[in-house]
């Protein structure tokens, strides 16, 4: 009789532990589902690191602006005469208007480099944010051009750049010939 | 007799556990997929990018800007292949998008502007409180027949009751 009683207690304990385990797993499952609920399409895309995002971080407007800058006669003249300060004076007010809304923060913004014959001749930092966190090592000069203008997002703050870590904005550039 | 009663209790127990598991799975799935997912900002961004591609090429303003008939959704559809009409049920009769395009000279004077869809979404942006429209606004430096200009593009997506 005692033996049967012990067996019953053992079985009951097994069921109780199993029930507690199931409930525990269930609570974790529910909690996890609450944590991973998505607020925006960006949240979903962030899960797929390294994949391209839907629009908006390729900056076609900056690309088109750089094309226009490279066709801007006064800028070309300034580069031909090696008057790079003049080029900076012409580019700065334009850059302030075309840069992404919200990136005019003290920690980050768009900077410009001018290359002539594949050598950097001017670096323009209108936001006064000397870059310490330049991730643009995939850049190559435009070989067929006498000069090129490159626009890139830069920051001295690693935290600031972290928000772009999954789809880092490509630098945009355009080149031209000096005549 | 006791064994039979024990088995009956076990059956109830199993049913109870199955119900708890089912409720848990349904709740978790509901929790994840029932959450509002706001894709409107991505939509506004895509709309803006499509407009840039349609109106500017290699830094030069294209004829398509002049050809666009302000206010005409048909001309926007024909020239830029953008259809602002939402034919999917809920918003069938009401325009949920707004576009404002303008040209500004280097001295910040506007000399041309066009709008499509419900451009007043830009005005009501402040008034709608929590459920405000998503929007994008960008300036593009362009050469308008060798004249230096800024193409201003603002896109708005309302869709407060769906897509969010």
Major β-sheet annotation of chain A = 4 strands, antiparallel
State the separation between the terminal residues of chain A, measured CA to CA.
Answer: 108 Å
Structural class of chain B: alpha+beta
Q: Work out the strand percent of chain A.
A: 15-25%
Low-pLDDT regions of chain B: none
How far do the termini of chain B sit from each other?
Answer: 59 Å
Number of helices, where a helix is a run of at least 4 consecutive DSSP H or I residues of chain A: 6
Strand segment count of chain A: 4
Overall shape of chain B: it is rod-shaped
The largest sheet of chain B has its strands arranged as: 4-3-6-5
Strand order of the largest sheet of chain A: 2-1-3-4
The fraction of residues in strands of chain B falls at: 25-35%
Radius of gyration of chain B: 26 Å
Question: Which regions of chain A are unreliable across 5 or more consecutive residues at pLDDT < 50?
Answer: 49-56, 101-105, 129-141
SSE arrangement of chain B, N to C: HHEEHHEEHEE
Greatest interface and its participating residue counts: A-B, 41 and 41 residues
């Amino acid at each position: 009789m005692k033996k049967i009683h012990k067996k019953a207690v053992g079985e009951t304990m097994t069921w109780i532990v199993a029930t507690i385990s199931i409930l525990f797993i269930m609570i974790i499952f529910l909690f996890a589902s609450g944590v991973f609920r998505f607020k925006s399409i960006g949240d979903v895309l962030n899960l797929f690191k390294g994949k391209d995002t839907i629009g908006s971080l390729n900056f076609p407007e900056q690309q088109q602006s750089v094309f226009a800058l490279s066709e801007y006669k006064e800028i070309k003249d300034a580069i031909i005469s090696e008057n790079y300060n003049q080029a900076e004076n012409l580019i700065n007010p334009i850059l302030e208007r075309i840069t992404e809304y919200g990136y005019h923060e003290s920690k980050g913004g768009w900077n410009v480099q001018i290359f002539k014959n594949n050598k950097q001749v001017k670096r323009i930092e209108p936001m006064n944010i000397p870059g310490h966190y330049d991730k643009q090592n995939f850049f190559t000069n435009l070989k067929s051009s006498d000069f090129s203008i490159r626009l890139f997002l830069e920051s001295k703050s690693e935290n600031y750049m972290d928000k772009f870590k999954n789809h880092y904005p490509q630098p945009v550039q355009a080149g031209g010939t000096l005549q | 007799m006791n064994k039979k009663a024990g088995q009956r209790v076990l059956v109830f127990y199993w049913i109870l556990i199955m119900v708890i598991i089912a409720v848990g799975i349904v709740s978790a799935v509901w929790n994840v997929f029932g959450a509002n997912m706001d894709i409107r900002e991505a939509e506004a961004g895509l709309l803006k990018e499509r407009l840039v591609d349609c109106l500017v090429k290699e830094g030069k303003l294209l004829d398509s800007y002049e050809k666009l008939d302000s206010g005409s959704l048909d001309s926007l559809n024909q020239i830029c292949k953008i259809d602002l009409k939402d034919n999917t049920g809920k918003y069938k009769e009401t325009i949920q998008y707004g576009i404002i395009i303008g040209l500004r000279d280097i001295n910040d004077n506007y000399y041309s502007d066009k709008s499509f869809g419900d451009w007043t979404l830009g005005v009501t942006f402040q008034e709608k409180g929590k459920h405000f429209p998503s929007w994008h606004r960008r300036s593009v430096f362009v050469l308008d027949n060798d004249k230096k200009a800024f193409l201003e593009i603002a896109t708005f997506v309302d869709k407060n009751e769906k897509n969010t």
